[in-house]
Amino acid sequence: MPAWDDEEGYASSSMESGEGNGSASSITTAPPARSEQSQSPMPMQQDLTRSPESSDLGFRLPRMIPVLTSSFLRPFSKFIGQQRSDVQTYHVEVELKYVDMAQSSLCGYLKIEGKPPSSPYPAGSTQLTSSSTTGLTEKHPSISTYFDGEIIGPKYTFQTRHPTWGATDKTDMQHWARFAAWRQLGKQARKPDFHYKNFTQRENIFMRWKESFLVPDHRVREIQGASFEGFYYICFNQISGDISGIYFHAKSEKFQQLELKHVDDRGCFPAIEFR
């Protein structure tokens, strides 16, 4: 039988011949040539939930896995409640469409109307007062807007930094100070270079929601008797799912309060993946 010599790297074998002079002859055989393919290491098995996948277009595409820190702050979550001013109370519904905690951003739709819908409120929600018996305006009983959200954290500070929004540093501090959770941050939150670190692990998340355009007609820029040019200062509680907000617009009534509660969906929501 051939014997492999680990040190020499080849196999040798001895055969006894019964023919001729009867002497033994030694036959040395070289190891079989190995192809370049066999010399390359075997590829490691990829975890398809974490590693890039090949596409039909000939290049590799990363598979995005969303990371959500709250069962409430996620796509398709719905919230219902009211926005109050000194003279009026409005019914408000919010539906989140996209949440990206890594980029500190989200977006969704906000619907506001003067008269609540005929459907009953979910358990635990606050009923509207009798002052809310008329439409939002004479011609528009309700309006729906698309909004973008900035989550306060490593990317965005408590200072708005958007001149077109009309808010100064003083305006920011006056509005943030109305949230009890923000006041606990103390003087540090007032510093321009302060960053709300590890915001995903905190009980309260602070945001700004900026209404961008009307839905479904984005070409409408203004509505007489109503404004969607302002934005909301938001405090979101990750434990209860409650949202508190204050609306700001230079030409609107000051410190209009927004109070929303999460609509229970038993933790079920649709998920779509494009591959």
Can you put this structure into words, describing what you see?
With 275 residues, the chain is mainly beta. The chain is 6% helix and 33% strand. It has helices at 36-39, 169-176, 180-183; strands at residues 3-5, 10-16, 24-29, 53-54, 60-61, 78-84, 89-100, 105-113, 142-151, 204-215, 231-237, 243-248, 256-262. The longest helix is centred in the middle third of the chain and has 8 residues, at 169-176. The two termini are 55 Å apart. The relative contact order is 0.15.
Q: What tags apply to this protein structure?
A:
single chain; 275 residues; mainly beta; three-stranded antiparallel β-sheet
Strand order of the largest sheet: 6-7-8-9-10-11-12-13
Distance between the termini: 55 Å
Order of helices and strands: EEEHEEEEEEHHEEEE
Describe the biggest sheet? 8 strands, antiparallel, barrel
**What is the global morphology?**
globular
Strand content: 25-35%
In which range does the helix fraction lie?
under 10%
- Tell me the number of helical segments per DSSP (H or I, 4 or more residues long): 3
Report the C-alpha radius of gyration, rounded. Answer: 33 Å
Structural class: mainly beta
Could you report the average pLDDT, rounded to the nearest whole number?
Answer: 74
| Count of DSSP strands | 13
| Unreliable runs | 7-27, 36-54, 119-133
Q: Topology of this structure?
A:
Layout: E1 3-5, E2 10-16, E3 24-29, H1 36-39, E4 53-54, E5 60-61, E6 78-84, E7 89-100, E8 105-113, E9 142-151, H2 169-176, H3 180-183, E10 204-215, E11 231-237, E12 243-248, E13 256-262
Antiparallel strand pairs: 1-2, 2-3, 4-5, 6-7, 6-13, 7-8, 8-9, 9-10, 10-11, 11-12, 12-13
